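User: Can you fold this complex?
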Amino acid sequence: MSDVATTAAGQALGTAASSRADAATTTRIRVRRETAPYASPYLAGVGIGVVLLLAFVLMGRGLGASGAFSSVVAAAVNTAAPSHAAGNVFYTRYLSDGAANPLRDWLVLEIIGVVIGGLASAVLAGRMRWTTERGAGITDRRRLANAFVGGTAMGVGAKLARGCTSGLGLTGGATLSVGSWLFVIAAFVGAYAAAPLLRRAWR
Amino acid sequence: MMAPLYEFGRFGDSASLVVAVLLGIAFGWFLEQGGMGNARKLSGQFYFTDLSVLKLMFSAIVTAMLGLFWLSWAGLLDLSRVYVPETFIAPQIVGGLVFGAGFATGGLCPGTSCVAAATGRKDGLALIVGMLAGVFVFGEAFPAIGHFADSTARGAWTLPQAFGLSYGTVVGGVVAVALGAFAGAEWLERRAERPARPMKVVA
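Assistant: Here's the predicted assembly.
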């Protein structure tokens, strides 16, 4: 029994080695991409829940994402046109007390961490790919345009709602904020209303 | 020792920024592990083929929510010092609808776009650029729409307050809803995997 297992393992290793040798062929890359296994979403979710709880215990605040984008935009506008930024309450909220550098912001550093953590996980799992994720029904250019348009809508929506799936969905969800739960329900309604129009983009 | 540690002066601002990076790394790690850096996997949520988004979000919310509940019940954490995202009823519903439509179009949310971009997905980068553009558009429009964005403010309003129920009852209710959602998600995924049944011809 163990002999069989060892042989099978040896064959698997051999296959892996030979596939690495001619990994340049696109078909092999596609096969590897399709088979790279992700963790159970329940396990990953519990992991994120523990991280969120640690944020509450250590900081008294939760996780977020869209706030980091606001700090970057506010800092950029403040650099390009300081008097324009100073006259707009939206920007001054993120520029806070003048002395503080918005890029020394807690959420900006948290997002830098997200980039590092995501990168480390993908490298170790062999899931790094310089590619465009899309359905077969559209071109790469169309997919990138959709991502840009979707991002723009999310930028507006998240700022109107004062948060996104992280700051309202996770943090507000766990702290039982009424507005957060309203936001999440509205977001899923909006997504399911738009999805049928975009079916081709993902098929 | 009483949590939140930062709120009770156990460490200062510089240390809090290190905490931000470390928590971000763990957040990004679990997002990537759960497949949330891949728009093709994520978008399965909107076509009922892969409900990882729902499973991951609800698992994270329930984990952190139960942690907060038990830590405060044991007297180890002062809940009044934990930040609850503020409620703005109308802008959060409208913002949620816009955000959701953008989510279905872009296939990633603000946090997961950072993971996608970090792992080489060009669509993640395009979505980040779109987010920055959207935040800028919102910032420039703020003098005109700020009145609506700041309307229907309810402060740190929680579900127990809104429903007039105890904290424990609402926590139990959210757990029950999550378990029901998990069962529904598994059923939908099994249904999506099953090959389409040949249609019966009725004479």
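Chain B touches chain A through 129 residues (CB under 8 Å). The longest helix of chain B spans residues 122-149.
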